[in-house]
Amino acid sequence: MRRYGKNPDEDDIRVRPNPKGNRPRTNIRPKHEEAAEGMVLTVDRGRLTVLIEGRAVHAMKARELGRKAAVVGDQVMVVGDLSGDKDTLARIVRIQPRTSVLRRTADDDDPYERVVVANADQLAIVTALADPEPRPRMIDRCLVAAYDGGLSPLLVLTKSDLASADELLESYGALDIPYVVTSRDELAKGEAADRVRDFLNDKITAFVGHSGVGKTTLVNALVPEDRRRSTGHVNAVTGRGRHTTTSALALPLPGGRGWVVDTPGVRSFGLHHVDPSRVILAFPDLVPGTEECPRACSHDEPDCALDAWVADGHADPARLYSLRRLLATRERREGD
C-alpha cells in the first residue's frame, strides 16, 4: 500500500473520477415545447391521471416542479409516453395558471393550506335538511372559501321529505345564491339529478359537503356510467356519516356538457388561509360604501362606513348582516 508523506507532490495523488460531478450545473430548464396539454382528473399517492385528447394518461410530477403540486382540475403540460397504455408513465412538466382555487385548512389554527380543486367555476354545497341536521356554520365557511377562491356558490339541499327547506333558505336569501331542493324519492327516480344538472351545464362544478348528506349518491345519479362508490350510512348516535369518497375525482357529465368534481366528505372546513378583506368582494353592491371606511377597516366595527351607507338606502340591510356573519365565520369555529 502506497503511503504519502506530509508534503506529497500533487502529481503523486490519485484522484478517483466522480461521474456525477463531471456535468456542469445550469439554471436553464428545458422548454418542453412538444408537451401536450391535459386536465388532471384525479391524484392518488403521487400518481396523477390526466385527460389528454380523450385518453386517460398516467403521469407523475417532474422533479423540476419542486414542491409545486398539481391537483384535480389543473391544466398541465405533459411529456413522455402519452398513449395511456398499461404500465406507461408520463411526466407533468408545467402547471398552467389557475383561474380559481378552492382551498381549505384542517381547522382555523392549522397554517397548512390544502388545495381541493383548481379551475372550477362553481361550488355546489350539498346539505341535508335532516339526518344529519343541517349545519349553517359549515355552509357559511364553504361560502367564504368559494368567494375567496373565485367560485360561484350553489346550494343543493337534500332530504326535503324529512324537513322543510324554508327556514334555511330564508337565512341565505340576501346572498341571492341559486339553490336546488331535492327529496330522497326524487333522487331515486332521477328527477333530482335532472334539476341539478341544469345548473351544471358547461361548467366545472366541485361538490362539497359533510358526510351522510347524500353527496356521492347525487354524483352517482348525475354521472351514472362512472358510479364512484357505495354510499355510506349515518351513525344514529353521532349523527355523522361515513366517508365514502376518499379522493377528489373529476367526472364528465353526459354529452360533454360540463364536469363534476366529487370531493371527500369533510367534518370541518378551516379558513386559516382566507384574508377577511377579500370577503367584501362577494358583495359588489356594498363595495362602494367602503370608500369612507377607516384604514384597515374590518367592516365589522363601530366606525365602519357601511352602516351609514346602508342606512341611507344604498343597499339592503340584510346584505350587510350576511357580510358580517361571513366575516365572523372566519374567527368562529364551525361548531360554535
Characterization of the model:
The protein is an alpha/beta fold. The chain contains seven helices and 13 strands. It has helices spanning 136-149, 166-171, 184-189, 191-197, 215-222, 306-311, 317-331, and strands at 36-44, 47-52, 55-61, 75-80, 90-95, 101-104, 114-118, 122-128, 152-158, 179-181, 203-208, 249-252, 258-262. Helix 1 crosses helix 7 and helix 4 (191-197) packs across helix 5 (215-222). It is globular.
Provide a concise account of the structure shown.
The chain has 336 residues and is an alpha/beta fold.
- Report the radius of gyration as a whole number of Å: 26 Å
**What is the count of β-strands?**
13
Q: Mean pLDDT across all residues, rounded?
A: 83
User: Which residue ranges are poorly predicted, with pLDDT under 50 across at least 5 consecutive positions?
Assistant: 228-245
**Ends apart, CA distance between termini:** 77 Å
Per DSSP, what share of the residues sits in E-state strands of 2 or more residues?
Answer: 15-25%
Give the helix tally.
Answer: 7
Secondary structure class reads alpha/beta
